[in-house]
Amino acid sequence: MMKHYEMLCVLPGTLSEDEIAPMVQGISQVLGNYHVQNMSLEDMGKSRLAYPIKLIRYGYFQLFRFDLESTYLEKMEKSVRLVGGFLRVIVQISDLSKEHSYTLALDPTALSAPKKSDEERREERRFERKTAQKKQEQIVHHLAEVKIDKEPAPFVQVEAAETVLPKKEEEKITEVKPKRVAKNQTDISLDTIDARLDEILQQDIDKV
Description:
Elements: E1 2-12, H1 17-33, E2 37-53, E3 56-69, H2 73-82, E4 88-93, H3 118-145, H4 167-172, H5 190-207
Antiparallel strand pairs: 1-3, 1-4, 2-3
């Protein structure tokens, strides 16, 4: 069944216009391979994106309108994506009776963009200051909710405990002191002892 579709292709704003032309031509060739009918192209120009895509803030918007058999839609979309280099490719069914033109926001970086009045610049600066102040208040409020213990943990000095030995172990390691010899004790040689014994024996013999 033939249906009417709109396909929005967003190309990186970092490209030059000379680089955009062959990409648009490649998309047109892919659509031609699927025998689309009543194809039209609307160059919507360059505009700022609602949010950065791949760190890119601006894009070129190309809107294709065409009639296509619904059975070929999925294959056609995959073939278009294979061309590569797109930030976004969006395909949707369009009602011809309600079809309307889209208007993008003006690109403030374009040379043809109208210059802003002094009042507009002042209003932008006020808005930027309010935004920055609001962010700062949110950060302060967040930090206030987080309880941070700034006091360092008390330092406990552990003294080395004395080693207490059991009594038995203490006795074992007691130093053995040498016996002292009496001062009045004299050294006696073996010869003296033998002579004394001989005298005692002789006295006993004489008594018999």
